[in-house]
Every structure is written in C-alpha cells, then in structure tokens.
Amino acid sequence: MARRGGSAGPVLLAAWLVVLPAVWAACSRDGRPSLWGAVPVFALLLAEGAERVVARVFFAPVLPERLSFVITSSVKTPPARSLLDWYDRHRRVLPWRSGPGQTADPYAVWLSEIMLQQTTVKAVGPYYHRFLEKFPTVQALAAADRDDVLSAWAGLGYYSRARNLHACAQKVVELGGFPNTVEGLLTLPGIGAYTAAAVAAIAFGVPVVPVDGNVERITSRLFAIEEPLPASRKKLAALASGLNADKEAQKRPSDFAQALFDLGASLCSPRSPACGLCPWVAVCAAHKAGIAATLPRRAPKAVKPVRYGAHFLVIDAAGQVLLRKRPEKGLLAAMTELPGTPWRTEPWSTEEALIHAPVQTEWQDCGMVKHVFTHFTLQVTVYAARISRFSNQAVQEGFLAPATGVDALSLPSLMLKCIKRGMKTLAT
C-alpha cells in the first residue's frame, strides 16, 4: 500500500500533462485551440476535483458521459451567435423589456426581477402594470408609505420582497441611482447574486451570466450533469459562467442574458424540451445521450411540516369586519389579517381556539382553509359570526373595514381565502 500511495503523485502529474492539452484541443474552433472555449470544461474539472477527474478519465472502464467531451470533443462551448440569431427572431415581448437597440431602464429591470422571484411571468404581468402606474419611478416608490407598497404588492406573495423593495428604492435614491456593477448592486437591500447579475447584465451591459432556474436547466443539459440539485448547483454555476465567453456574447451581454432566459422558458423547458428547434442542439450532451428530458435531476423533496391556526371573521350590523395588523417581524410582517390564534405545530381544539376570539358570541365553524408557504403548510380553521356592534375594546385592538370592500384592502391571499370561506358560511 505504501508503494502504491507513493507513486500516485507522479502518475497524477503525468495524467494532467495529458488531460490539459486534450481539453485545450477538444475546445478548439476551426482547428485552432480556444481559451474561451475551454473555460466551461476547466470549470467542471475544478468543480469535480483534480484527483477524481484524472482517476475517472484514466482508470474508469468507460469514460463518464458528462466528461467524454474532454477527450472526444463531443461537447464544446455553445456558439453565442446561433443563440443570439435565434433570439433576434423569437425574443419574447415583455412589458419590462426594452426594444431592440433601446437602452434598458434599470428600475423596470430591477422591479421585474424582484416580482419574478417565485412567481411566473404570466402572473406577474398585471401586477407589474398596476405597480408601475402607482409608482412610475424609483423616486416615487421610495417616497411612498410602506403600507401603500404592501397593498400594491398584495396577491404576489412573499411579502418580504415588497418590504425589501421599498427599502432598496430608498437606498437607490440616497445613492443617486442604481449602482452599475454586480458588486455595487449586491450592497442593496433584497438583492442577491442572481438579481445583481441580471440587473447588471440587462440594464448596464455587464458581461455576466445570471443563473436562474432556466440557466441551470440549460447548463445541466448542455454538459449532461447528472448529479441532482441542489448538490450540483455550484458546478452548474461554474459552467454557466463560461457560456458567454466568446466575442459575440461579450458584444451583447444584455441580449445574451435574456436569450438564455427565453431559451429556457420556450424550448429548453422542464418537461418536454423542443430539442429539434433548439439553436444549441448540435452541442448538447444530454440530447446526444437521450437524457435531456430527465435533467436537471433533483434530490427528493422533504415533506413540508404542517402548522395549525384559527382565524375569526366577525361582521356587525353595519356590515363592518374586524381586522388587525400582524407584527412588524416574521411571516406576512405588517400585513392585514383577521384576528386569530398563533400558528403552531399542534392542532387547536375549538375550546383552545375560542380563547383567542376577538368577541364573545356564538361562532360557526366554517371548516378548514389550507395554504402552502415555502417551508410549511398551514391549516387554518375559520370561525364566523354576526354581532350587533363592536365593543370599544375590540376596535382598539384592530380596525374596522366594510365587509364588501375587503378586496380593495389588498389582503394576503390566505386572508382572502379565510374571508371567502366565512362569508359563504354566514350566507347560508
């Protein structure tokens, strides 16, 4: 064993002396080695680990599919020109996008990217228009009352985004405008690595690749990365960072980033990729291996825990409903809600729940409303009642609003579901 261990170093060194030129040659264009073409390959080699890659290349009986291009040239850096030509013909028309040849508005790009987090393009469209009508500039958003911002955001969910949006707008106004670098954008509230890269590339022409779910999917298929997410996320990001390495992509960083988004949204879709129409099909390792539709693979999702709560809909003779504000911190922070219990891991008995009722009256059990949050599922029992009038104490602990006008209050969707369930019970 000592002898075997002692010879490993020279063997690995010799192996690298063969592998590195092979990588360089495999990524050549027109017979000429290309440094930029080799970038994604070297990224994968580094992500895999030198010892593991060399051992696999030289000692595995069959060369792994996702590394076969190192020796056989079966996969090269995809040509940006073919993607951009496709994009010029098929680009999506989206309300926040500038037209061909026009300069992108950083405010529009940033606002759309925040809205699109955890939300589909189709769902965002109407909200984007309404939000922009109310807050047409970053200055208008910064000067707005936070409750007005939360109200305009209601229905999109993930309300911490709205609070961060407001805080970010105030910081941008303080700075005199949006920073035009990834590093500068990362200093703003609510902006992470992806959003910073997206705004920098699209609005300011910084040659970076924003890595969202679309780009992860494209990259996993181009290089046939079979390791499941989330473990493969760093590897995919390293490979994706080299997709814009050639001169054509560097000339059009804004278009290249959006072309990747459009490719993932339209052709390289999650379930049924239209490989025959893809501008990169000729260099796609997953397509060649017949596994494109299976990638990216994902580790089994953990079962979401369940929490339980109860909320109370009570309406007086004047048609007013009692509401209150949630705490400033935590889930749905500062949003409007029906009075209710805390949310906990054990179900509430009727006797326990009624201790938290805002008034003493005869309550009707309206059944359960289910709502799915990112990290848990909430099951809420809704209780409803009618009374002649509210006591001063009840009003002091909340506020009254017309029951027929709750939609105008832009409540969280959970509360709208609870109110709808309670109103249906009271109407029968």
TrEMBL record:
Supply the EC number(s).
Answer: 3.2.2.31
InterPro entries on file: A/G_AdeGlyc_MutY, DNA_glycosylase, Endonuclease-III-like_CS2, Endouclease-III_FeS-bd_BS, HhH-GPD_domain, HhH_base_excis_C, HhH_motif, MIG/MutY
Q: Which note does the record give on the cofactor?
A: Binds 1 [4Fe-4S] cluster.
Which GO terms of type biological process are on file? Answer: base-excision repair; mismatch repair
UniProt entry tagged with the keyword 4Fe-4S: yes
Per the database entry, which stretches of residues form a coiled coil?
none
| Physiological role | Adenine glycosylase active on G-A mispairs. MutY also corrects error-prone DNA synthesis past GO lesions which are due to the oxidatively damaged form of guanine: 7,8-dihydro-8-oxoguanine (8-oxo-dGTP).
Q: Member of which family?
A: Belongs to the Nth/MutY family.
Q: What is this protein called?
A: Adenine DNA glycosylase
Q: Which organism is it from?
A: Acetobacter senegalensis
